[in-house]
Amino acid sequence: MSQPRVIAFIGTVGSGKSTHMKLLYSKLKRKGLKTKMSFLKTGHLFAFILEISLAKIVANKRKDMFPIRALVEERPTLFRRIFRLLLGLDLISITLKFLAGIYLPLKLGYTVLIEEYIPATISDYVYLSKIVNFPLRVNSFAINYLLKLMNLCGPTQIIFLDAKNDELRIRWKLRRSLDEREDYIQMQRTLLLQISRGLSSMNFIYINTGAKTLVETQKLIMNQLLV
Fold first, then answer.
1. For the segment 49-84, what is each residue's pLDDT rounded down to a tens digit?
2. How many domains does the chain divide into?
3. What's the whole-model pTM score?
4. 184: domain range?
5. How far apart are CA 11 and CA 170, in angstroms?
6. How far apart are CA 95 and CA 115, in angstroms?
7. Per-residue pLDDT tens for 155-175?
């Protein structure tokens, strides 16, 4: 079995990334491979700062949406002003998570399964920057820095999972999470998909998990890894 050292599960919210990553993790462990799971999209520090900001700044706390969306919609001018600062703090947090959860395990001989990863981080940054009318350039420091981190890990196998919106909504309700905006999901199907395909240095695979059973999806993933 020619096994890639970095396998990233990327795709739309609710498409089954966590589920299939855990299933693959169990299978690889049973085969005797040193395997580790990790999550890398945005840093915990970034989310923490946003939570604190919302608690102090947004008087009318929005419980019907995620914190970052509430901050953007309730205080767009403020978010635009602090966007660079938040971006910098997030990159620091991501670096720490990257070194501890991905780079060091790779050096120790582990195969690392990652949910989201660098393509998702870049697409989210671009998405947020457009909302606040502060577009990131392709050659911006943030994007170049993230790409350099990804290059440190060598070849990456990207598995992109998706499902129709109706199926995604059912899954959001089952796990009792907030609904995502359609423009965000569409961004994941366009920009995120494009970035993921371009940054996959190994065979890229796209799977519609709504059209296949859990077993069928896992079989496709295992077949891909055997290539």
1. 665 565 556 545 556 666 666 767 777 777 777 788
2. 1
3. 0.86
4. 6-41+91-130+139-225
5. 17
6. 16
7. 899 999 999 999 999 999 998
